[in-house]
Amino acid sequence: MTKGTQPVQEGALQRPEPDEGPGELARKLGRLFVLHPHDGKPYTAADVAGAINKRAGKNIISATYVWQLRVGRADNPTVNRLKALAEFFHVPASYLLGGDDELDRRTEAELDDLELMQHHRVRQVAYQMATLADDGQAAVQDLALRIAQLPEEGREVLLKVLAGLEDASKLAARLSNRNQEHA
User: What was the pLDDT predicted at 99?
Assistant: First the structure.
């Protein structure tokens, strides 16, 4: 008997033993479930199935089957279900199928970016950056890269300097308001 097979009775099909852990589809779906675009909470299987079925105008996938795909208990959805899942998560269906390393790398990089944007402070910085001209964006990017290269002690000193600048800015604004009130 070869490794990965179970003893069989005469006439029965040999089936390989299940792989350890979830497969590639389950891993990818697991990541997509936690990249929730609105409230920061992971999708539920019911959320996904409900939205897919609503969009299709009929029941094409159950919450149980979505859950089975996510945890690796099922790994061979129909083409229509795979396309519906890909459409729901805004990824190419071929990404979920796997086998295209370049597409997988590009999609994973986009998901990394999306994951970063879910962090409140990163989102705030991105929104502020969008208001700057190109040269201002380049300057902020350069500054961020330089800060990232500082040793921990250097970053702590910089934070104290920035806190001092913020305090000075607030003081200047209060003084300006007082002068306008007395004018």
Answer: 82
